[in-house]
Amino acid sequence: MADPVLQLRGVGVRFGRQEVLRGVDLAIDRHQTVCVVGESGCGKTVLLKLIVGLLTPTAGEVLFEGTPLHRLSERELTRMRLRVGFLFQQAALFDSLNVYDNVAFGLRAKGGVAEAEVRQRVRERLAEVGMPEGAEGKMPAEVSGGMRKRVGLARALALDPDVMLYDEPTTGLDPIMTDVINELILRTRSRRPVTSIIVTHEMRTVRKVADRVVMLYPLARLGPGEPQVLYDGPPGGLAEADDPRVREFVAGDARARLEE
Amino acid sequence: MATTAPSRAEPGPPPDDDALPIGGPIAVALVGLGDWTLFSARALAGVFGRAFAGRELLRVAVEVGVNSLGVVVVTGLFIGMVLAVQTYSQFHTVGLETSLGAVIHLSVVRELGPVLAAVMLAGRVGSAMAAELATMRVTEQIDALACLGVDPVKYLTAPRFLACLGMIPLLTVFADLTGLIGSTLICLRVYGIDSHHYWEHSRSYVGVWDVGVGLGKAVVFGGVLSLIACHRGFHSKPGAAGVGRAATEAFVLAFVAIIVLDFVLAMFSNALHEVIWPDAVAKVV
Predict the structure, then answer these.
(1) Phi then psi dihedrals of residue B209, to 5 deg
(2) CA triple A62-A156-A151, angle to 5 deg
């Protein structure tokens, strides 16, 4: 079997006195779509930022195609990042640039791409995510939340990434727009072979797009020595998981929590 | 503590009290100064590597330069007028009012022009820069830049540094000129000082060296101010309170740095003057 694209080995993260991740081991195979679920504050977003080198772990190591990130030179890390697309929670569009320039940003920064090709690629990506014509000149503040997410997705896809990271792609969107984003994730996967990691607590997204689900639990609620990954398996097994905390999360059942 | 790798994406968050074994504000300040130095070195590497967009440089230069002209002109004009009003009575008592031109113009060109222009810009431009970058940090735009293969420190700080380095001395020229105009208006028009002797004294005592020292200070103030503002913005804490705090810290730290550097540069320029012209007589009005 081929080596995993991404690996976390005994990863721990601590901010001052607050420990967010502890001893997390995870291996993600090529072209897999993994949903990382868990309560707010369990370290899902931190996990994504570790993968792309925006944060460095306080313990353990993160490997991309077998190479630990901390051993990569600055140039190599940049090259690695250009192979990873990141859709941020609030899209993180650049305020001072319009929709077109936001999507074109990565291509221009990479260099060596003619402006005509940039134009073609930007239009293709915007069309792929269903942005209406005429939206190219709009500023991020002038478009809706759902559109911002779509532009963010187009920007992340502009460089044809091998790995896509989605940070709560459907949070704050209405049910229709949530499904639009879910469809776009599926469409992206069908158009090009891509490994996807989706951080979410939206169970509809999990059921619709995931090959595999990883559930993290907040360290503050765990006993000493308990593993932070409560579930790692197919989405179909979530409802029948042995751990009652997994079943409660999937069902959205807070009764046990209220009784604590 | 988990950090963003300093040599990679952007420098890590500011030092945490818990992470320092000896603790205390002095240790935090020293670690902060070290972090700022590394941040500044990285920004300077961005300047020499042209790791930023020309359009961004132009936008910031217009914001720093053109949009600040009004406040700098008003500040310079009134400082000149106030100096004339405050010094006239003392000099008039001993019959030396014609020397006011030399005293005021020297003060404005060497000290007050550069310092007040820089302080005004620390408030107007520095805190705005810190707030803008802090908002980019909070809304993950800085992380997005790193993910798109761009070094955020170089890309965002280098144009701001260059804009301040170029624009703040230019604005200081305007502060100097309007300071001179303000003081001259009060001295000649209100107090009726003899214009010939007023200008003669000024010409004798204010030279190219003095103007050069003032503008040299402005260059240093501009560079340091922008680096402090950008550093605070990059290290903003989350939320609206974090952005507000970054803007306030940028102004306060830049203000203190300007005053301290003014003293250091005044000492240095005097020492340099003595080395270059050892026989020069001390200026006595």
Answers:
(1) -55, -45
(2) 145
Beta bridge partners of A35: A198, A213
Q: How many Å is the Cα radius of gyration of chain B? A: 22
Indicate yes or no: CB of B5 within 8 angstroms of CB of A81: no
Q: Is the pTM for the entire model greater than 0.90? A: no
Q: In a 3-state reduction of DSSP, which class is residue A20?
A: strand
Instruction: Classify A6-83+161-259 by CATH class.
Output: alpha beta
Closest by Cα among A70, A59, A201 to B9: A70
Which tokens is A126 given?
């915007």
Domain residue spans of chain B:
25-267
Q: Write out pLDDT tens, residues B62-96.
A: 999 999 999 999 999 999 999 999 999 888 888 88
Q: Is B103 part of the contact surface with chain A (CB cutoff 8 Å)?
A: no
Q: Read out DSSP for B97-128? A: GGGHHHHHHHHIIIIIHHHHHHHHHIIIIIHH
Confirm if B115 and B258 have CB atoms less than 8 A apart: yes
Which tokens go with A243? 């751990």
Please say whether the beta carbons of B222 and B118 come within 8 A.
yes
Where does chain A hold its CATH 3.40.50.300 domain(s)? 6-83+161-259
Instruction: Summarize pLDDT for B206-242 with one digit per residue, the tens.
Output: 889 999 999 999 999 999 999 999 999 999 998 899 9
Contacts of A53 in chain B (CB under 8 A): 5, 8-9, 146
Tokens of A238: 């979530």
Q: Cβ of B54 under 8 Å from any chain A Cβ?
A: no
- With CB atoms and an 8 Å threshold, state whether A17 touches B141: no
Whether the CB-CB separation of A83 and A35 falls below 8 Å is answered with no
**What's the complex ipTM?**
0.90
Q: Are B243 and B139 in contact (CB under 8 A)?
A: no
CA atoms of B172 and B248, how far apart (whole Å): 23
